[in-house]
Design brief:
By secondary structure, the chain is mostly helical. It has 6 helices and 2 strands. The radius of gyration is 21 Å and the shape is elongated.
Length: about 150
């Protein structure tokens, strides 16, 4: 009997972080969509309020910016220079984790579970950004060519 071995594959840190932002956004969106099934949420929405905030142009603009930032990070992680990338990912993941934790206070269980998953994904983003691999110089071929 032969042993099956899976081929190891290295995934670039940029792809990992981009995938984590994408996953976070899916959970984020679905938790908010599931809120539409709640009678109390729909009643507040009909009254023009969400979480104590009045739904108006300023609120919707702020919400759009809040959601656009991690949406843009999915792509920016792939193109920003490593130093800017690390700083942006660490800072934004911490800020978003804090706002998600604050928003989950006194919420329903589904919201708390979704928020916990989002915070875990954001912690992974910060961790990967913090431990971003250092670039190693390619081995010199000058010595081999002279032999």
């Amino acid at each position: 009997m032969t042993e099956t071995k899976f081929e190891p594959f290295h995934v670039n840190v940029r792809i990992k972080i981009s995938a984590l932002w994408t996953s976070m956004l899916f959970v984020f969106a679905y938790v908010d969509l599931f809120s539409l099934y709640r009678p109390d949420f729909r009643a507040d929405l009909e009254a023009g309020e969400i979480g104590g905030f009045t739904v108006n142009q300023a609120f919707l603009l702020g919400t759009t910016i809040y959601v656009a930032i991690p949406s843009l990070m999915v792509f920016c992680v792939l193109i920003l220079r490593p130093r800017a990338n690390r700083i942006a990912n660490i800072a934004l993941s911490i800020i978003y984790a804090l706002t998600i934790i604050a928003g989950a206070i006194d919420e329903w269980n589904y919201y708390i579970v979704g928020s916990a998953i989002d915070v875990a994904l954001l912690a992974a983003i910060a961790s990967y950004a913090w431990t971003w691999p250092k670039e190693t110089a390619p081995p010199s071929t000058a010595g081999r060519a002279a032999r």
